């Protein structure tokens, strides 16, 4: 029996074996969501054989309530027989299964769940009935050799969003507690949408074994779109506090051409492994043929998410996945995650209010954290993202609090002590409320004091804004300038320096960026919320020079980096050698010289789509569009 467990930041098989779980979400091509009521073993066997040939290691599948359970949670024995037969088939083909237990929402439709009271899964009686159903299923499968883990729901917050966070967590805790008592040998996740309360790592830690994001993003800029996936995986893990497994991602070939689906899947797979995800499950394995079945008749895009088309033929994405599976094997033979590990030098803090409720604090957005993660990655450093209340996990190096309206007083006290001991801090402020102060340590930490007249809203800026550099600041020199575009007008705090050095001003002389030393560390304060501005305008290239200067000043770069924001570089450090993941987020092939902060004698290609050549301590690379290239560097 394969045992799965949480091993630090990864999911392990049989206690200590770390494998990347390359997987798919699965319904059969002919029967789709009617898999159990229109049971066809030959179809399933054929499709599992195709999966095995592509290197698929895991399948997420769905237990449909109408097929399995009555109004009181009692189980249908014929469906259970089919379930066991399906698991036997998975074992035969060497694939592990992740059953999803509560399927109220699926493919743009809410489906009947017979045992619910008033349609409310969070009702106490509904939970009792669901637990009875869970006991039946888990008891049947817990010792099966093909079982990989349990996924509690499929996006239950879309079926019915809980009225409160506490109600959601009570549901999650009650049901996962029962699963773990019956089956302590397999991991459990919530299966909820990423922005739902049951995927909030600080709140579900100890209740579930991993965070399982479902990510579907759209963006005007293809490079930013690609970076969003890695940033969300960083945020989900809370600095490696919990493993992350990308449970869903994909696009329909009824939205986009088949070749672009393939490019996208390739990009995300390399992003997932480079950001230390324990796996990635593509939505989904096959297109569906019965286009008049609900919900496909009114949701036609749902027919085309497969990597196998409706005629049973592989799409271009299938060959991409096959090649990626070979790269995985090469990486695991080299000892990825055992011999080679990431070593982030920068910590970005998720604000306290993002995942907890505080009276009269109504800031819930963490998009600036994602933007900061992306900018830092673009300029060549590695990032860990840590929740503010997990102060003890922040670590050494550069600490960043991007575009925050406020932080806890205990956090500011901790950061002051942390900087004095030798770490560095960058903070940018977002004035979202006039009846607010972001800190109680203006002078003690930042070396500035408020300077506006009482009742003032502060300084308003809009349109094209020029920021003049007054003092050398990393790669920015005195006399340089940065021009940024502001959408809607924003207000800035007006502050004057006490012992801080003014680094930058607006054209009218208003100081906006400051630097001061506290003990053995340096503090940078910006009253311009650079990261928030990007969330509104999307113009990240305007801010990159500032972030590049910040990383240069703090000497926070990793061993290898690109000068082009299109190329993401992630370094895994071993003994006197490295693994480089070079991911091209552009829609074009990209050539660049990867710079190295170390002497290198040779490189070898581990996998991916592209070429590389060592040339005088530079690596000349040509990486195909929306793809990854993995190099071993000695």
- Which CATH architecture of the largest domain would you pick? Alpha-Beta Barrel
Helical stretch tally: 15
Number of domains: 3
CATH class category of the largest domain: Alpha Beta
Descriptive overview:
By secondary structure, the protein is of the alpha/beta class. The chain has 15 helices and 31 strands. The mean pLDDT is 95.
How are the SSEs placed, and which strands pair?
Blueprint: E1 4-7, E2 10-13, E3 21-25, H1 41-54, E4 58-62, H2 65-68, H3 77-92, E5 96-102, E6 105-106, E7 109-110, H4 124-141, E8 149-153, H5 156-159, H6 165-182, E9 187-189, H7 201-204, E10 214-215, H8 222-237, E11 246-249, H9 258-274, E12 279-282, H10 316-334, E13 346-350, H11 367-378, E14 383-387, E15 398-404, H12 409-420, E16 424-429, H13 442-446, E17 448-450, E18 459-469, E19 481-492, E20 495-497, E21 501-506, E22 511-518, E23 521-526, H14 530-537, H15 544-554, E24 560-561, E25 567-573, E26 578-584, E27 590-596, E28 603-608, E29 610-615, E30 618-623, E31 627-633
Parallel strand pairs: 3-4, 3-12, 4-5, 5-8, 8-9, 10-11, 11-12, 13-14, 13-15, 15-16, 16-23
Antiparallel strand pairs: 1-2, 6-7, 17-20, 18-19, 18-21, 21-22, 22-23, 24-27, 25-26, 26-31, 27-30, 28-31, 29-30
Helix pairs in contact: 4-6, 8-9, 8-11, 9-10, 11-14
Condensed summary:
The protein is an alpha/beta fold. The protein is 28% helix and 26% strand.
Characteristic terms for this protein:
globular; Rossmann fold; TIM Barrel; 634 residues; Immunoglobulin-like; nine-stranded mixed β-sheet; single chain; 28% helix; alpha/beta; 3 domains
